[in-house]
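Sample intake sheet
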Amino acid sequence: AMLEGGGAPTVQTIRFPFLPLCQLLFTDEATLVGAGHDANPAVFSAGGSGWAFKDFLDKKSAAKAAGPAANSVASKMAMWQNKDKTGSASASGAGTTSWRKHQGPITCLKPMGGNKFSTSACDGRLVTWTA
């Protein structure tokens, strides 16, 4: 995984079932962050057998997933607001990504020192992360 002493570089292909990555950033010698069309930074780590996908950084929190009770006034109000915004009654459907910090493809990764970095996307948002 790590190149030492002028040896020949090796090429490794990592296949994973997610959308393509457009940007890559090494945060240190054993950590690689990739971002792109999934709108969620992916972390890769170097191990004994090479590089491997570790996890996504943006995770759905339990508080955002739970939402208000089905029969409450707040629930009905949220349903109509969501219909107005997205054209769908359900904000927590299987395919929604409204909980993500980015709503469009990540187009830029910039190091901020140490294991911190920032991302910007087509949605106009700038987000800082810790890998």
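Comment: Residues 30 and 46 are 5 Å apart (CA to CA). The mean pLDDT is 83.
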